[in-house]
Amino acid sequence: MKVIVIGAGVLGVSVARQLALAGEDVLLLDQRGAGTGTSATTFAWTNSYRRLDPDYHRLGLAGMEEHARLARQLPGAAAYFPSGALQWADAANEQWLADNVARLRSLGYPAHRVTSGEATRIAGDLRIPATITSLAHFPGEGYVLPDLFVRNLLADAERHGAAYVIGEVVEIEETPDRVSVTLADGTVRTGDRVVLAAGRWTRQLAARAGIDVPMVTDSRRGSPTVGLLGYVGLPVLDLRCVVHSPGLNVRPAGGGRAVVQALDLNAEVDPADPPSAGGDIASTLARRFSALLPEPVPAPDIDLRVGLRSLPADGHTIAGYAAGHSRVYCLVSHSGVTLAPILGRLAATEITTGQEQALLGAFRPTRFTGVRRSGAEVDHGATKLGEQ
């Protein structure tokens, strides 16, 4: 089978690798380069922490388990770290944290309260502020180094025969016996199936094939698609896990550096006029980060990256054929890093065998058929961890 995968982000590269492992003829296309879209601007925290829908929670758990299996199989330097995660709460959020720990424990999700001394040993070189009144540990969670993860997946896909080409897709056309993809330079590629894994570009590309994939596409200031990350250049920081504190989320970035995220600042970010390294937003991130360090240090340099999230209209993953007899398989998720390994394997299984996978049953693009756009949309605004 000839399969064309559009989009070399974490989802597209994952499914391309699995298809290549299955012996299919795979062509992977990306307009800019592997991992340079949303995958390059993700906090990359692996979890099923706040998926209140039972089907989505099960999929998240499967994604976490698949990461562990994939890490034992995938050649290359380690890109997945099952470090666990800590949640710190102040008095205003203490009850919320207690309720959430109780909810997760009732589902069998590893979660428990810890003392400040235990949290310090788990976190490494971070100071717990005096305002923190409650702490919890989630040992099954972790993080990914997304650029390295994508490189490892792509290298293994190519090792098993997948071809990788840079090219902008301008048209997708289905016929009863094939599907063709036209590139901006006029090249036409044909295949038996197309996997549309183009992240935030999914809706516009799907529309060129006559397919409606409802997504949040607003990228203006204040849109829920807009996210900000800061890469902190402190090469001596011994940070050992993901930490969520009031005002700042932190994870290791490799080489002793850290990635920081402040959800409340996202509303101030305008992608058309990105914040500067010396501006107010960078200063706020630096100040919040410095407050967590065990020793006073000069304000660290922070490399700011503005990202645009891939957001299906109802917040849930989309995985499946656009229609009953379609040759276009749609794959898009806000939880791409957590779900990439499991979505890659399950989507490839459905494409190669024609057998539907139960975990994906609730996430078909056909669920939007006949639903008014307003009925498919949810409020994606998040200013703190529990709202994600």
UniProtKB/TrEMBL annotation:
<keyword id="KW-0560">Oxidoreductase</keyword>
<dbReference type="InterPro" id="IPR036188">
    <property type="entry name" value="FAD/NAD-bd_sf"/>
</dbReference>
<dbReference type="GO" id="GO:0005737">
    <property type="term" value="C:cytoplasm"/>
</dbReference>
<protein>
    <submittedName>
        <fullName>FAD-dependent oxidoreductase</fullName>
    </submittedName>
</protein>
<dbReference type="GO" id="GO:0016491">
    <property type="term" value="F:oxidoreductase activity"/>
</dbReference>
<dbReference type="Pfam" id="PF01266">
    <property type="entry name" value="DAO"/>
</dbReference>
<feature type="domain" description="FAD dependent oxidoreductase">
    <location>
        <begin position="2"/>
        <end position="348"/>
    </location>
</feature>
<dbReference type="InterPro" id="IPR006076">
    <property type="entry name" value="FAD-dep_OxRdtase"/>
</dbReference>
